[in-house]
Specification:
By secondary structure, the chain is of the alpha/beta class. The protein contains six helices and seven strands.
Length: 234
Amino acid sequence: MKLGFLLTPYLCRGLEFSWGMRMQNTSHAVMAQRAEPKDSPDDFPTPPWATRALLEYVINEGVDRSQSCLEPACGAGHMAKVLEEYFCQVRCSDAYEYGYGPVRNFLTHPYETNAVDWVITNPPFRLAEEFVLRSLQVARRGVAILARTVFLESSGRYNRIFRDQPPSKFAQFVERVPMVKGRLDKNASTATGYAWLVWENGAAGSPRLLWVPPCRKQLERSSDYPPDNCGRRA
């Protein structure tokens, strides 16, 4: 009886610890999700430094100022504006009105085959597969899609894309890329990992796994973010 009495507090602590771990893991998993209704514009603007990272570290050898690019999910233009730093011509549009590019549904608009050199975008996650397949028809040189790391998962995605048309590069950010619904926020945080998936026409061999090195401090600019209510930039 005394032994049982002495053990009981420790057993309780073990149960509390186990329950706490389960709660912690569940909370983390929820934080890593980004679920949107089917009719949602899924507007999570890309921090400009993350787009520069693609051009500086991932496809830096395949792009020059003479080339053209299409950003078909441009939102308010946060990615398209950065692409203009690297391409001579940037075309952009979105299926919703944001006051930047023309309203155009990328999946149904009659683009010509090989219409531009590159298609680069952060597509709505629920339509990312369709964006990849459509982009491969539109781009002459390559396609780059910013997506959650878990985009690599799913047997359906493997059968529809990766088995027959694997990316030439998978570039994982080692830093977090915080995205907030409807706005840029320099002080935001996230539990979600992101990566650039790149398809380069004519690339030979197996897909290459790359890491985007720590570069936010180097590539981020104060002018990337809107001023606050006092006119100051983040």
